[in-house]
Specification:
Number of strands: 0
Structural class: mainly alpha
Helix content: 55-70%
Distance between the termini: 109 Å
Length: about 180
């Protein structure tokens, strides 16, 4: 506990013998041993009181809560909240166009899709471009694309430009055709 060597203990004993004297030395040793016994009993009592306080405070429950927080998996909790039956995950993991995926029940929509896919030509069908229609991607039906209107004549200038300036600009444009 205190890490005394034999030479240090011998030195303490000689100093105690000289200071206390041979006659009172046994009484002093008994008093010191009683003090050590009381200190040990007080330390043991303190230790038991601390253990009782730990049990009363239910620190095991707090420790378990910290353990649960440490092992918390945010991803799985969000997945449980958003997709509890895992249907979204299964949809993304499976190929809806794969007929060999093991789905034995086929609906009318599935057979129609299969027949359309089987009867489709090998290459993509792209209609020739119509010059009166705007250029749209091939996946947009041509009826939805608005036709290109021919350029209209220049509109009247806004009212905030003085008419004299508009006339001068028109005369300059007529005089210098470039």
């Amino acid at each position: 506990m205190f890490d005394f060597s034999w030479s240090q203990i011998m030195l303490i004993g000689v100093v105690a013998l000289v200071l206390i004297g041979p006659k009172d030395l046994p009484i002093a040793l008994r008093a010191i041993s009683n003090l050590v016994k009381k200190a040990r009993s007080m330390a043991a009592e303190f230790h038991t009181h601390v253990d009782d306080l730990m049990k009363d405070a239910d620190l095991k429950g707090v420790r378990d809560q910290f353990k649960d927080i440490r092992n918390f998996d945010l991803r799985s909790e969000i997945e449980k909240a958003v997709d509890p039956d895992r249907s979204i995950r299964d949809t993304f993991n499976s190929n809806p166009l794969d007929t060999a995926s093991g789905t034995s029940t086929t609906s009318a929509a599935d057979t129609t899709l299969e027949s359309v896919l089987n009867e489709a030509p090998a290459g993509p069908v792209v209609p020739p471009p119509d010059p009166t229609r705007a250029h749209a991607p091939p996946f947009i039906p041509p009826g939805l694309v608005t036709p290109i209107e021919p350029p209209a004549e220049p509109a009247e200038p806004p009212a905030f430009i003085p008419p004299a300036l508009v006339r001068q600009a028109a005369e300059r444009a007529a005089a210098n055709p470039t």
